[in-house]
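Entry details:
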Amino acid sequence: MDRDTGTPNPSPKPEPPAGRATTALREAPTPEQTAPRPPGTAAVALVTDAGTTRIADGVVAKIAGLAARDIPGVYSMGTGMARRMGQLKSIIPGGDSAGAAQGVAVQVGEKEAAIDLDIVTWYGQSIVDISDAVRRNVVGQVEGMTGLKVVEVNIQVDDIQVESEQPAAPPRVQ
């Protein structure tokens, strides 16, 4: 019976133990909620009748980074220091594991993703056209490969690459 209305309660919940009146009882988590996941690897679950697919944030970041680099006019990605560290990592064998996601930050939910990109463009090319092309390609690739809806792609142009104005040095050996 419900104490306030006097009507029968079809599924009574047990009262909390004495001294814990302010603590609400929660239902037991499902196996998907309690499955262990390595720290720092947030994942998205795509649930179908056939099962569940989990996509890590790093996978979405890598897809977005590769899609952005596919666009002509994108010279590099990342802020100044990140680009320098990426150059050093590429020299070391096996050190370029996160290179594709350099300059990419993602926020992934259950069905949606938001992506932030830091890019460097070439001097003389339209930043508006390049950013529109990057945005279209990133949205298309991420949505096509993951099934997530990309709600926004924020692009920050951090630098412009200027081709060297010095003529190429003649070869030392003839």
About this structure: Residues 11-40 have pLDDT under 50 and may be disordered. Residues 57-161 form a domain with the Alpha-Beta Plaits fold (CATH 3.30.70.1350). The chain has four helices and six strands. The two ends are 100 Å apart (CA to CA).
